[in-house]
Amino acid sequence: MVENSPLPFPEKTKRKPKTYWPQKYWAVTLPVTSSLLSIVISHVLLLGINMMSTSPLNAIHKIIGNYAKNQQ
């Protein structure tokens, strides 16, 4: 054993195999969160695209009626 080691416990410096597995909580949480996030983003994008592709409410093409048809 080394007398002047900077480590507090030099006997614990032996290499151990690193077998790290994430918790089961994250195995469920990450896929669910990512799928819900993608659904929310897709709905927001779809809503935005639909809003941009429709004409405004005060457009003459939205007005329907006999008087409006005579004005065109």
UniProtKB/TrEMBL annotation:
- Keywords annotated in UniProt: Membrane, Transmembrane, Transmembrane helix
Answer whether the UniProt record assigns the keyword Protein transport to this protein: no
What's an example GO BP annotation here? GPI anchor biosynthetic process
Q: How does it sit in the membrane?
A: Multi-pass membrane protein
Which stretches are transmembrane?
25-49
Q: Which GO terms describe its cellular component?
A: endoplasmic reticulum; membrane
**Chief localization:** membrane
Q: Where is the PIG-P domain?
A: 19-69
Kindly list any coiled-coil regions of this protein. none
**Localization:** Membrane
What is the designated name of this protein? Answer: (raccoon dog) hypothetical protein
Origin organism is: Nyctereutes procyonoides (Raccoon dog)
